[in-house]
Each structure stands twice: as structure tokens, then as C-alpha cells.
User: Which sequence fits this backbone?
């Protein structure tokens, strides 16, 4: 099945389907490891993620449980069922959506999900305008997500209207299906830390259904610099020493301001993409351009005050 994206006109349902056939061929012997590190392939899958040590540790726990369960089955012992629903707490740009999308592939590779597709939804995709519509919309969305991951960002928006709001009906429907369809369906709710904590108090059975509640802390300056280098390298560019100094100095100043809504990696992405455009404009004025010049982003290319921040 080829990769496919579907955008819902009334919301932002994004469906990403993995190349299931190819992945299964590559992973038929995924548990037949003979190397010294049984987690090497997981480290490779998560190598692009800066920080997130707790998440990486949890994924290894899940994988280890799968392998040991297989050995227990071979001995005629009972398997331990794994519930994989997750709740992510973090500010914008800390990697919540990116991680959720990657988990769909990882869980498929581990044979935990039958399809490994990823669906991103928001309040408008679940909550209806009249009685009965919300449960119907939510069940339909869950059905589309069967075999994969349903990711709902800013999940606390489902409860923003109080007791009489239809969002509560969506929450109740999600809770029911989390229990009924846990074998081939993973729900990930995400949002700001404080708002997500409050959200968990709105339904008595909600928190207990998320065995994995993970914090996505803001990146520190060193981590943001590593992300900047990664983003530049993937585009076949490199930051010069003066560019790195300029960006690092700017990030320190932003860190001292301690703004709650600093956009983290999103800001870095904007910086790199803007620098690439400034780099192109600068080089157009030159007659002879060397290969090194085509690669190197200089301090003059970083117009940091021009970058639109997400506050």
C-alpha cells in the first residue's frame, strides 16, 4: 500500500499510510537479532530525535516485552497484553506530532499495528453540532484509525465548552473505544502541559487508560543547535562558525526571556529555511560561485529578527 495523504476540508484529518508490504518483508526477521545490542534498530529509527530519552526508553521496553512474550509463547506460557495509548504534554515545536507519526511506523514494524497508518485530527473532526452527531463522527474517525494511530492535538479543546458541550460526548466515546479496540488501535492525545493535566481530571476513567504519559520538555540551547545542524545537513547545507555563534547567542537571549510559548524546533526550521532563501539572494549577485559557497550558510544569511516567531 503506497503512502497517501488525505486532507479533510472541515478539519485537518491527515492520513499517512505506510508501505506495508515492503516493511513486512524487511521485518520478517526483526526479532531474530544476533548482534550485541538488541535495540540497535530502534536507536537507528529514533536517531533523528534530539533528547526525548524517556520516550526512547519506553519504546525499548515495549520492544523487549514483545520479544520476551514470543519466547514465553514458545514455552506455552501466557502473553502479557500491552496497552499502548499515550498522552503527550509539551509546548509547540517539541516534537509531539513528529514522534506520533514515527510511532505508527515503529509499531507496524513490531507487528503491534496491522496497517501502521497515522491520522491527525482536531476538535472539529470529532464534535458535531447536534445531539448524536458527535458520537457518530468520533466512531467513524476511530474506524478509519483502526490498525494505526489516531493523534489528537490540543485534546483539551474537546472539553472547553463545559458540561453541556458535545465535546464531552467525544471524550466518552474515545474512552469506550480505547478499551474495546486496544488490540489494533492506538490513541495519542497531546497538548500544552498545564491544559492536559486539567483535561485528565474531566473524565474519571481517562488517566488510567494512558499507561504512557510523556513530557516533551522545551529544548535547551545545545539541543536546538543540534537540531539546526541536522536540518541544514538534510538540505545539504552547513552552518558557518559565525552563523552558529549568531544563532546560539540569539537562542540564549530567548531562553533568558523564558517565554512560555517559544516555538522550539519550529523556530529553528523557520530560521534554516529563511537563511537558505537569503543565501540564494546573496549568491545571485556573484559571477563565480564555488561548491563550498553553495553549501555554506553564513551569519549574514541569518536574519533572525525577520523570522516570524510563534508566541
Assistant:
Amino acid at each position: 500500500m503506497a503512502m497517501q495523504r488525505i486532507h479533510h476540508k472541515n478539519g485537518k484529518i491527515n492520513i499517512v499510510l505506510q508501505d506495508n508490504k515492503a516493511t513486512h518483508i524487511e521485518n520478517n526477521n526483526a526479532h531474530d537479532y544476533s548482534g550485541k545490542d538488541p535495540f540497535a534498530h530502534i536507536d537507528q529509527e529514533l536517531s533523528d530525535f534530539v533528547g526525548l530519552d524517556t520516550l526512547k526508553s519506553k519504546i525499548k521496553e515495549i520492544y523487549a516485552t514483545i520479544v520476551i512474550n514470543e519466547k514465553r509463547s514458545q514455552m506455552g506460557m501466557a502473553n502479557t497484553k500491552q496497552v499502548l495509548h499515550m498522552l503527550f504534554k509539551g509546548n509547540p515545536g517539541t516534537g509531539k506530532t513528529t514522534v506520533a507519526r514515527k510511532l505508527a511506523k515503529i509499531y507496524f514494524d513490531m507487528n503491534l499495528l496491522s496497517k501502521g497508518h497515522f491520522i491527525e485530527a482536531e476538535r472539529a473532526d470529532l464534535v458535531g453540532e447536534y445531539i448524536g452527531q458527535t458520537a457518530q463522527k468520533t466512531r467513524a474517525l476511530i474506524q478509519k484509525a483502526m490498525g494505526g494511530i489516531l493523534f489528537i492535538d490540543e485534546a483539551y479543546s474537546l472539553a472547553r465548552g463545559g458540561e453541556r458541550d458535545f465535546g464531552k460526548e467525544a471524550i466518552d466515546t474515545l474512552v469506550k473505544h480505547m478499551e474495546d479496540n486496544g488490540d489494533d488501535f492506538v490513541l495519542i492525545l497531546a497538548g500544552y502541559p498545564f491544559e492536559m493535566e486539567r483535561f485528565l481530571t474531566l473524565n474519571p476513567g481517562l488517566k488510567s487508560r494512558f499507561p504512557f504519559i510523556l513530557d516533551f520538555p522545551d529544548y535547551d540551547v545545545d539541543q536546538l543547535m543540534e537540531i539546526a545542524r541536522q536540518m541544514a545537513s538534510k538540505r545539504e547545507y552547513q552552518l558557518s562558525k559565525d552563523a552558529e555563534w549568531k544563532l546560539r547567542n540569539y537562542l540564549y537571549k530567548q531562553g533568558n526571556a523564558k517565554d512560555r510559548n517559544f516555538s522550539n524546533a519550529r523556530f529553528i526550521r523557520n530560521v534554516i529555511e529563511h537563511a537558505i532563501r537569503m543565501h540564494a539572494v546573496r549568491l545571485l549577485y556573484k559571477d563565480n560561485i564555488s561548491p563550498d559557497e553553495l553549501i555554506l550558510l553564513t551569519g549574514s544569511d541569518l536574519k533572525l529578527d525577520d523570522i516570524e516567531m510563534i508566541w
Summary: The chain is about 45% helix and 10% strand. The radius of gyration is 22 Å. The first helix runs from residue 20 to 27. Residues 32 and 175 are 36 Å apart (CA to CA).
